[in-house]
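tool_call: predict_structure(chain=1)
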Amino acid sequence: MKLPVYLDYAATTPVDPRVAKKMAECLCLEGTFGNPASKSHIYGWQAAEAVDIARGQIADLIGADTREIVFTSGATECDNLAVTGVALANRGGSRKKIITSAIEHKAVLDPCHYAETLGYEVVYLKPNADGLVTPEMLEEAIDDNTLLVSLMHANNEIGVVQDIGRLAEIAKSHGALFHSDCAQSAGKVRIDVSTMPVDYLSLCAHKVYGPKGIGAFYVRKGAPRPNPVIRGGGHEMGMRSGTLATHQIVGMGEAFALAKSEMKQENMRIEGLRNRLAEALLSLPETSVNGTMNSRLPGNLNVTFRGINGENFMLALRNIAVSTGSACTSASLNPSYVLKALGLSDADAHSSIRFSLGRFTTEEEIDYAIGVISEEYLKQRKLGSLWKV
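tool_result:
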């Protein structure tokens, strides 16, 4: 067993060796290394074909048409295209409201703050104690002045999965556009845009055993095109200029293809390990789970260890790699804004740890983690290493 045990799959996943093999074939002279935009020779043709295959693999996972997939640098860029791009494209329009939630990723919240400087009203829905944004909440906030609704499919900290199909239906009934950040859910939760009336989806590879630095933006045929965030060359239907990174795109395509073929079996195994971990940790004194367990990613568990300093506790777990929240805000000393939105106190938010399991997590690792975590938690409580507000 390799130490430290990695239980931070929500931050990023290791590249699957099968994906790495496909990527390596695109890097050398003997492989598909060419520029997909080079139309005058076989090296460019081969690269373009590899990109087309990957585009099809990505579209296939979500039930889309290949012409609805735009390659980007990752889900953050997709989120910016969806929020900033749509806001800029509609500056002269009559609809001036954007609806999102208080627990979105910063890649959505920060563009929403920017949209406010452009004159848009942004409504931040507060989820219920289970972490869910209900259809009733959206119905109460939406009106015919609403341009865009942006609600994530699965939360990166608490793993709660929203009913984006139903929420998108409400948006469409009011003539609003609908976007969902699916960085965490793709490959773990079924997504079918043929039955979900969404206009835009954000996808990335590194949460599903593909490489970092590559993402895909789903734009439904007929949906308004966002203003491009990156210009210069007219690549990707004019929505995202820049030379296509063939090796990363091929890696994303292979990762999505593997996810589609293995999702059901993999989810069952991972959920079983997650439940084993949950049963043990929640049997400890004054612990509780954050977010509903009924609609949740199979590998996510966010636990409050009440009464201790979460940062000190996490540092004491030297041989277990976990986090107190999103990797994008891990440098902040502030309590998680996601947990605060669920109603947790500063002390309880500071005392919460996210465990996220994945494809390479083993039963041996979970049993080891249970033993180490339980021993350290009980030790810190006995010594009185309490969080002082």
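agent: The two ends are 38 Å apart (CA to CA). Proceeding to next step.
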